Amino acid sequence: MIRPLLSRFPARKHRTQTIAAVAVLGAVGVAATACGGGGAGGAGGGAGGRAASATGGSSAPSTSEARPSSPSSLSSPSSPASPSSPSSPTPSPRTNADVDCSVAKCIALTFDDGPGPDTGRLLDVLKAQNVPATFFVLGDQAVKYPSLVHREYAEGNEVGNHTWDHKDLSRLPAAAVQDEITRSADAIAATGIPRPTLVRPPYGAVDDTVRTVAGAPFIMWRVDPEDWKYPDPARVADQIVGHAKPGRIVLSHDTHKTTVDATPAVIQRLKHQGYTFVTVSTLMKGVGLRNGTSYFNRPPAITGGGS
Ligand SMILES: [Zn+2]
User: Where does the record place the NodB homology domain (predicted)?
Assistant: First the structure.
């Protein structure tokens, strides 16, 4: 279960993946990556140079979306079989939920692959800083750490779906893609929170089949500190802050201790620059997300394409 598909995505030796792709609304198809280290499926996103279609760009923004190592189990699994959430918590009001990111200087921190052993510490940091984030949770982690998934939501963060066990969806038949997404959504909902509506495909890998059956918009990323590759808090913080721009989505992983270590500095520095932290849904408010469409950042207000 450790990085089952990593072989498809050889470790990158270049830095150009630091920023993933740019959504170019209205564009059809994807400009090929300029990055030699990118994986199959056109997955390599250059340093902001690859354009992916917001109407269904065919490839991943970056391949650095790594599977975590197996965490230890903290609590007993909850059944993923009951998608309803009779005990849904009343979440604290979503911090900054009323912010209009078409005007404000917004940025969305996202954390993938968890929950894991360091997620609670990250939640402490976010809560102390009054910063909301978006967690793209794996179903098989949700059943190991249901209380952490519940806490993520209850403390004002957003919880999205990162599939059941981090398979490359673009290599699966339709029924298996659906199962990966549905099973994970069930497990997340079974923690007592609303069923997730956003999907982040592992490795950012999607194809026509995935786009057709996913039944959700795909939330990619625009800033990638490659935290899985460089377990150095200072570097992670520098990469995120250095590539931050209004409307961008930042990818990182709460499964890496060093990423959690980096987060206080990231928040402090970006706050100092005037950023408002928002969840992905707040960032995208008014955009009109469409199922099967990939989003890498908040689209510019004026584009030639979709909305
Ligand atoms: Zn992942």
Answer: 105-278
